[in-house]
Amino acid sequence: MRKWPLILSLLLLLTSCGRIELNELIIVSGLGFDVSPEGMSMSIQLVNPGATAKSKGATESGGAGGAVYTYTISGSSITEIMEKARNMFSRKIYFAHLSVILIGEEFAKSKGLLPILDYLERFYQIRDNVNVFVAKESTAKELFSVYIPIQNMPSLSIARRIDVYGGSMGLQKGVELQDIIRWNYGGYTEPVIPGIKKKIPEADAAQTAVLDDIDGNQKMFEMTGFAFFNDDKLAGWFTPGESRGWAFLGNNVDGFETTVECPGYPDEIIGVKFKETKGKLENLSTDPLSYKATLSAAAEVQEVTCPIALENGAQIKQIEKKAEEKLQREMQQAFQTAVKNNVDMLGLRQLLYENRYSEWKKIKDQWDKKFKMAQLDTSADITIQQTGLRLKSVYEK
């Protein structure tokens, strides 16, 4: 019986081994990568728990200061940077709640994705479903140094552009770390990453005092066209319309809003909201190399700026046709941008590899030559189901 007290004591010691208290951690909300004279700089955005609790309704004792602080450390590799970082903080750096990975445009061009992918994929605390963005015409550090109204954490504000609303492209999901790893190592598709920039590039919003200014534009981000890569380095940018075309071809769009030309009134527009969007891309032949893209969606009229009769079924058909033409044009533009830049970010080779492997083996060594002459046939089927809470336009006499 004397052995039981000893056993219980040992069990109590074992259950507490390796435990880390919450007040011993400092939570990383965002990671940003830029070029530096030492090779690279990593901006680490850390959550200030006291200020975050206070912003959510805690008492004055909850803390003060900004909701987050951004620390920028340089080195030749992420391991060297992390070695320096651990000498700076009194708490253990914790990455499990990382919201976003942000890559500066210059870093994406000159260094590419490979210098950061290995560490990010190996480290067990970093989830592979973290959203990734490229800072257009800017650095990651600059975007992480913007205090945002409403959502007081810049990294979380960037990540939720996709998670909550899908951006203007209506994406079902953003581009995640696992997507980039799969594209880079596991197939025949070049990476595409959403872009983001400051709405007013010259605005200084690095101080909390800017939050007292009623003008919200100077402290706001906006999504841009998507960045596409070739051999892991930034090769160019899609326009917003081409970005949506890329998403159509990859069947990664759900609901979005856009404008189409009003039939009979070329200077006026009709606002249309799309939902239940489904896209499909298939290969038709390898000689010549040709593909077919189909798109279907339900739609609702959001706004009318011309005297068109929405109660007239023929007029509705014309609006549907205008919408189909625009969406087909965006798919075609994305395809032609890929061909022009000789960058297969659409997964055209992957499509052949998965579905027509014997033919892919025959043309694999001739791909560059065939790709330059590749063609895309598009079709779209849009059905307007509703006209909102009114039928007639206010412009209709």
Automatic annotation (TrEMBL):
<dbReference type="InterPro" id="IPR057336">
    <property type="entry name" value="GerAC_N"/>
</dbReference>
<feature type="domain" description="Spore germination GerAC-like C-terminal">
    <location>
        <begin position="224"/>
        <end position="388"/>
    </location>
</feature>
<keyword id="KW-0472">Membrane</keyword>
<protein>
    <submittedName>
        <fullName>Ger(X)C family spore germination protein</fullName>
    </submittedName>
</protein>
<dbReference type="InterPro" id="IPR038501">
    <property type="entry name" value="Spore_GerAC_C_sf"/>
</dbReference>
<keyword id="KW-0564">Palmitate</keyword>
<keyword id="KW-0309">Germination</keyword>
<keyword id="KW-0732">Signal</keyword>
<comment type="similarity">
    <text>Belongs to the GerABKC lipoprotein family.</text>
</comment>
<dbReference type="Pfam" id="PF05504">
    <property type="entry name" value="Spore_GerAC"/>
</dbReference>
<dbReference type="InterPro" id="IPR008844">
    <property type="entry name" value="Spore_GerAC-like"/>
</dbReference>
<dbReference type="Pfam" id="PF25198">
    <property type="entry name" value="Spore_GerAC_N"/>
</dbReference>
<dbReference type="InterPro" id="IPR046953">
    <property type="entry name" value="Spore_GerAC-like_C"/>
</dbReference>
<keyword id="KW-0449">Lipoprotein</keyword>
<feature type="domain" description="Spore germination protein N-terminal">
    <location>
        <begin position="19"/>
        <end position="197"/>
    </location>
</feature>
